[in-house]
Amino acid sequence: MAKDKKNKPVAFVAPAGVDMSVLARIAAGENGIAYVSQDEGLPLVNFDPSLIEVNTGQLDAAGNAAARLTDAGKALVVASGASPVASGAVSEAPKSGLYSVISNAVLPPSKRGNKGGGGAPTVYPFETMEIGHSFFVPVSEKHPDPVKTLGSTVSSANMRFAVDTGQKKSVTRAKRGVKNRAVLDAAGNKIMETVEVPVYKHTRKFSIRPVVAGVKYGEWIAPADGALIARVPLKVD
Q: How many other CB atoms are there within 10 angstroms of residue 36's CB atom?
């Protein structure tokens, strides 16, 4: 609990619009991850700074997306005393302004399998990027594989600029059981199921690709191995 100048305890007051019970549930989740609905997640993603990051590519049977705390969310939960925060749930974020917008780079072709990972969306310039803009994250001790570690950052950014159409679609996928693990049949094969999930409409779209040092992408030459994250045109239905 925080203390005032006289070292007296000060009651914690949650910021307006922040549901601390959702943050506490995420903090207490396995490996600092829990599933949230769009109504629960969007206020926390859109809070300044963002309190959670969401991976819309990882959904539970009800269509809720996997979420974890950003550094800001972690600090808020600790300050509230609502719940312990899972160790390592959120990595330390780079300082704001570290990544500048590039206007003359072109994403390399997509390669299958470059998904997943994490990061904090508020330190990256998604808000100011126009179509064709991108930014570069080099390989480092913090990001030994930027495409992997920043995959959920890109997913979170895409969700921030998505709206629920109110429609549903059927998706066939592996059935999930305890701790979101795939349910297997007697032969060890995944049991598939068809579920209804929300349909979202993107108003902005971002993609991530690996780049190689010294290779030219458009008019931009990668200064090191790393990842290029770009705002790309929306697909026309």
A: 22
Query: 160, 121 in Cβ contact below 8 A?
Result: yes
pLDDT tens-digit map of 172-220: 988 888 777 888 888 889 999 998 888 889 999 999 999 999 999 999 9
Q: What gap in Å lies between CA 62 and CA 173, rounded to an integer? A: 12
Closest CA relative to residue 138, chosen from 165, 99, 105, 166: 99
- Give every CB contact of residue 214 below 8 A, 6+ residues apart in sequence: 221, 222
- 167-182 pLDDT, tens digit each: 999 989 888 887 778 8
- Give 211's strand partners: 226
Which secondary-structure segment (H or E) carries 67? strand 65-69
Start-end of H helices in 28-150: 38-46, 71-80, 146-149
